[in-house]
Design goal:
The protein contains ten helices and nine strands. By secondary structure, it is α+β, with helices and mostly antiparallel strands. The protein has two domains: 107 residues, Dna-directed Rna Polymerases I, Ii, And Iii 27 Kd Polypeptide, Chain: A, domain 1 (3-Layer(aba) Sandwich), CATH 3.40.1340; 87 residues, Arc Repressor Mutant, subunit A (Orthogonal Bundle), CATH 1.10.10.10. The chain has a six-stranded mixed beta sheet with strand order 1-2-3-4-5-6, sandwiched between helices. It has a three-stranded antiparallel beta sheet with strand order 7-9-8. α2 links the parallel β3 and β4. α5 packs across α8. It starts with 7 loop residues before the first helix and ends with a helix.
Amino acid sequence: MSDVIQETDLYAPIKALLEDQGYEVKGEVGPADIVALRDEDEPVIVEMKRGFSLSLFHQGVDRQRLSDAVYVAVPRGKGKAFRGALKKNIGLCRRLGLGLMTVRLRDGFVEVHLDPGPYVPRKMKARSSRLLREFARLAGDPNPGGSTRRRLMTAYRQDALRCLDCLDASGPLKAALVAERTGVEKARRLMADNHYGWFERVETGIYALSPNGKRALGEYAEEISRICVKSITAPDTAPSQSMVQSP
């Protein structure tokens, strides 16, 4: 006996579930895998596949031309990978207006994870606001669309590069002066958090470049040149060594 799962393995459990709810059920009716009728209710259509696939969702959407009550069904898998896929595909089905069932083949248990229904998008104002703030803070357009997220040039990274450039020009400096010269209001917090390992605190409130920071100057030289305006501090306004080193 073959252990390969067939779409027909899902049919009997789903049919039994629908019949328990008072439906008359038939398989392979026209283009549909399963059609269930009950009194004057909307016909229930179920499309089955051996796993989640684009074809399954294409078929489900196509069947919505025949009925508003369309489900897609797959065998229930095990493990973290399947749970992750299930969660994502529940979200996809919700947006498509499809229902979703899984069938546990060892005992025929059918779980309805989602019923069909119209999708009403819910705006997440906090995320939308963060998106707009990031757009406003990001200098220029440094990331071609579709770039890998691992090395994206974010507004935060640009602020860190401004601080890096300032310390390269001045040497160890008070965080308040870094903020003033770069326009990075949260320079102190940024250098203290030190997410990129570019800074080191030499005294309370005073920061300098770390060895990683010095290497980053070369690595990000082009971006630093693009976003940082070089300025020469007049001699009478330049901090003395004692001012730089004072806490």
